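Q: How would the C-alpha cells look for this protein?
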Amino acid sequence: MATSKNYVVPFRRRREGKTNYKKRLAYLLSGKPRLVVRITNTQFIAQIVVSEKGQDRVIAQFNSSSLAKKYGWKYAVKNLPSAYLTGFMLGKLALSKGIKEVILDAGLRKPHRKGRIYALVKGMIDAGVHIPYDPTILPDESRLKGEHIKAYLGKDVVKEFEAIKKKIEEEFSKASSSKTSKGEKK
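A: Here is the predicted structure in C-alpha cell form.
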C-alpha cells in the first residue's frame, strides 16, 4: 500500500466510498440548503439539510413510506408516483419552514435522466420550491401520475395519486390559513 514516506491516507469516509469531498465542498460553498435524496431498498428518504459550523442540520424530512401511513397510498413506495408525492410533500414542508430555494445532493448515486430522483425534484418544483434543473431530465407527466402502472396493474393509480396530492395541498392550505388568522388576531 504505502511505498514512500509521503503517502497520505485518505479520510475514512472517502476510503469507504461514502463521501465525495469535492462535491460536498462545492455544495457547502454555495451556501444554499441541500435537497438530500437517498434511495434505500424499501423507500425514499428526502431531507432539506443546512450546514452550520461544520455540522449538518436537517430542517425538514419526509419518507415515502409515510405516504402509506399518513395518506393511504396503497401502491409501492419506490416508484415514480410515490417519488413525486414525496417531493411534493417535502416541498410543502420546506415552504412552511421558509425555505424557497435548494440544490440537489444525490450523494454517490448517479441520477438517471427521467428517473425517480428527478421525479422527486419535479414534486418539489410543483410545490413551489426553486431548484436549478434542465427540463429535459424530468419524467413525463403521464408517468409521474402512474398511467404506466395502470396499464399493467389494471387499477386506477391516477385517481389515487390525484386524491393524495389534493389531501397534501388541503393540509398545507389549512395550516397557512390558520397561521394568517392567528397573525390577524394578535
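Strands lie at 34-39, 44-52, 55-63, 103-105.

The mean pLDDT is 89.

Upvote if useful.
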